[in-house]
């Protein structure tokens, strides 16, 4: 059995929220068996509310940066997980025997835009954070 870690990329549109949460959860929960990256089709900057709700769960993603796929090191990924519909539809080509999986999660900023209070907005982010954690906890079996 190879002791090489599974190489996983989480891909979303702007690499600001969902893919960053997924990267943070994977490092925290599965770092001993999975090497993880996140990137976007575009670069929107790290979402401060995502950083806040991840910190509430004990995961620090404040040092993450929003990045494009083209800015990643040259890695032959085993699995590319798209976390939003736009990224799934516009997923770039990856060389090698990469497996593509779509695991769509709601967009927290979009969910929070009509919130009446800050707490209501935070609840939208927390729900998606917890859904992403549940997905990551099942890795790598669900990949």
From TrEMBL:
Transmembrane segments: none annotated. GO terms for biological process: response to arsenic-containing substance. Residues 6-142 form the Phosphotyrosine protein phosphatase I domain. Signal peptide: none annotated. Keywords: Arsenical resistance. The keyword S-adenosyl-L-methionine does not apply. Pfam families: LMWPc. InterPro entries: Ptyr_pPase, Ptyr_pPase_sf. PANTHER family: ARSENATE REDUCTASE. This is Arsenate reductase. It comes from Desulfobaculum bizertense DSM 18034.
């Amino acid at each position: 059995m190879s002791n090489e870690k599974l190489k996983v990329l989480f891909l979303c549109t702007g690499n600001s929220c969902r893919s960053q949460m997924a990267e943070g959860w994977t490092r925290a929960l599965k770092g001993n068996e999975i090497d993880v990256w996140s990137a976007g089709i575009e670069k929107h900057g790290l979402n401060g509310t995502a950083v806040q709700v991840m910190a509430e769960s004990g995961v620090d993603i404040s040092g993450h940066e929003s990045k494009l796929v083209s800015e990643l090191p040259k890695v032959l990924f085993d699995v590319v997980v798209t976390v939003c519909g736009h990224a799934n539809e516009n997923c770039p080509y990856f060389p090698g025997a990469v497996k593509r999986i779509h695991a769509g999660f709601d967009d927290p900023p979009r969910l929070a835009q009509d919130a009446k209070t800050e707490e209501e907005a935070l609840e939208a982010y927390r729900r998606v954070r917890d859904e992403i954690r549940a997905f990551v906890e099942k890795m790598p079996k669900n990949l």
